[in-house]
Amino acid sequence: MGIIKLQNIRTYSYHGCLIEEGKIGSDYTVNLEVKTDFRKSSITDNLKDTVDYVLLNRIVVEEMAIRSDLLEHVAHRILTRIFEEIPEISRIIVAVSKLNPPIGGDVEAVTIEMEEYRS
């Protein structure tokens, strides 16, 4: 087994419960970790035998482009889509961070993290 990590995927997205957040948008980062089996690809050296991290990045970017009120909702969509499109993945951890959130304080980021296993 092995782990693929995509760290600090940066997007400009429009998530949040405030009307202004849907109009103005904000900077976000997403960290993604997936568990898969590297035994075959480590021998064959062939992309078709592993998880393509370009596809993982595309899924994150596409799901981040769909507005949600809650970061949990976005993370759930990312988890669901990865499991649907990439059957080789057995576990996913996704963390979605809103940078400089409008919460009335000097806070660098608010992050939610979700972990799911294939059932």
UniProtKB/TrEMBL annotation:
| Residues annotated as domain Dihydroneopterin aldolase/epimerase | 4-116
Xref: InterPro entries: Dihydroneopterin_aldolase, FolB_dom, GTP-CH-I_C/QueF
In which pathway does this enzyme or protein participate? Cofactor biosynthesis; tetrahydrofolate biosynthesis; 2-amino-4-hydroxy-6-hydroxymethyl-7,8-dihydropteridine diphosphate from 7,8-dihydroneopterin triphosphate: step 3/4
Molecular function in Gene Ontology: dihydroneopterin aldolase activity
Keyword flag Ligase: no
Q: Which UniProt keywords apply?
A: Folate biosynthesis, Lyase
Q: What is its EC number?
A: 4.1.2.25
Superkingdom in the source lineage: Bacteria
Catalysis performed (reactions): 7,8-dihydroneopterin = 6-hydroxymethyl-7,8-dihydropterin + glycolaldehyde
Record-level GO cellular component terms: cytoplasm
Q: Which GO terms describe its biological process?
A: folic acid biosynthetic process; tetrahydrofolate biosynthetic process
Which range is the signal sequence, renumbered to this chain? none
Summary of the function given for this chain in its UniProt record: Catalyzes the conversion of 7,8-dihydroneopterin to 6-hydroxymethyl-7,8-dihydropterin.
Spell out the family assignment given in the record's similarity comment: Belongs to the DHNA family.
Write the protein's name. 7,8-dihydroneopterin aldolase
Q: Which organism is it from?
A: Flavobacterium caseinilyticum
Taxonomy-wise, where does this protein's organism fall, top ranks first? Bacteria, Pseudomonadati, Bacteroidota, Flavobacteriia, Flavobacteriales
